[in-house]
Design brief:
Length: about 350
């Protein structure tokens, strides 16, 4: 509570100082005007009635309050509650105290000051996160001047945020400056990385073309080409990181495709070469055998001459008088197992007329 009151008082003090300055300027203008027209005033001797204070518009106050609430939520989502815990806590406490202040006055300006502080904390938290990412990915080397400017601006913001009387507008300006510098580093870095990765993707496409992957694996090849086109679209719409990711995916996909197709083509070629080698070896063996042991005109065993009849042909001269030989074997069972088998052969004449 001891920290809240000074900050709240500081916020109100800034507002009243601002109002006092405005009033002083207005009073000076009025004095000058009165000095110029003093004679006219003396002649008229009439007093100008004091202007009535403007009525408090509830809608204006409500809009200012809602704007401050939205800025507070944005600061929380940006991580300001963690990265700038002290500054966020003091601003939040002053905000709560201001909401509880029920004096019938218009505090739109105070709410605007609170909003500016929350906006500044949100921008600073984003700048800090972006800086951490740049450091992790080693992107500073691609835009050293912008990185150094961001470092300077963020350090200045940290110092300003520690001073309660620093106006919210000044805090917001410095935080935005730091974020913009770091964003320039991020944008320029990924723009260069995307351009380099696109060259690699095109090289892998050519490697895939060389092995006719567009014919052997048409679908996979087309997917890789679509990724390159997607990267081109992202690059054109000022999204270099998305472009880089698309180009990188295309490079990996086309490279794997080219290697796989090349390997399979090599296996097929190897099989073809082996088959050719076997055919050649067989031909050479036959030639060698023909030289060493030629067949010549010598008769082959079992075939004495060219007109030798191996199977006797039946000319069926008299089909009505064909004799069918039927051979029967009759076994006579008896006490002597060594008794011989008696062969009986009958000739049957088939009479076609019967």
């Amino acid at each position: 509570m001891k920290k809240v009151l000074p900050l709240f008082c500081a916020v109100l003090a800034l507002f009243f100082v601002s109002c006092a300055s405005t009033k002083q300027v207005a009073d000076d203008d009025i004095s000058k005007s009165q000095a110029v027209h003093v004679d006219d005033e003396e002649e008229k001797k009439e007093e100008t009635p004091a202007p009535e204070p403007a009525p408090v518009e509830a809608s204006d106050v409500q809009n200012s309050l809602e704007a401050a609430e939205s800025a507070r939520q944005a600061a929380i989502e940006a991580g300001a509650k963690d990265s700038y815990a002290d500054a966020f806590g003091l601003t939040d406490a002053a905000f709560e105290a201001l909401k509880k202040l029920d004096d019938g006055k218009n505090h739109s300006a105070e709410y605007a000051e609170i909003k500016a502080r929350f906006d500044a904390l949100a921008a600073a938290a984003k700048a800090k996160k972006l800086k951490e990412r740049i450091d992790q990915e080693g992107l500073a080397q691609y835009a050293k001047a912008d990185y150094d400017a961001g470092e300077k601006a963020l350090a200045e913001f940290d110092a300003m945020a520690a001073a309660p009387l620093t106006p919210g507008a000044a805090l917001n300006q410095k935080a935005s400056e730091a974020y913009n510098d770091y964003y320039a580093v991020y944008f320029k870095s990924y723009k260069k990385l995307a351009a380099d990765e696109r060259k690699n993707a095109i090289a892998q496409k050519r490697a895939a073309d060389a092995v006719k992957a567009q014919v052997a694996r048409k679908s996979e090849y087309a997917s890789g080409i679509e990724l390159i086109k997607k990267g081109d679209s992202n690059f054109a719409t000022q999204n270099p990181e998305a472009a880089y990711n698309s180009y990188k995916e295309a490079s990996q996909s086309l490279e794997a495709l080219a290697k796989d197709v090349a390997a399979k083509r090599a296996e097929a070629q190897k099989a073809i070469e082996e088959a050719k080698a076997k055919v050649k070896a067989s031909s050479e063996y036959a030639e060698k055998a023909d030289i060493e042991k030629p067949l010549g005109d010598e008769p082959v065993a079992g075939i004495e001459s060219e007109d030798t009849v191996l199977l006797k042909q039946d000319d069926f001269a008299n089909p009505d008088e064909q004799i069918i030989q039927i051979q029967e074997s009759i076994i006579i069972n008896g006490g002597n197992p060594d008794e011989q088998i008696i062969q009986k052969q009958e000739s049957v004449i088939i009479d076609a007329g019967e």
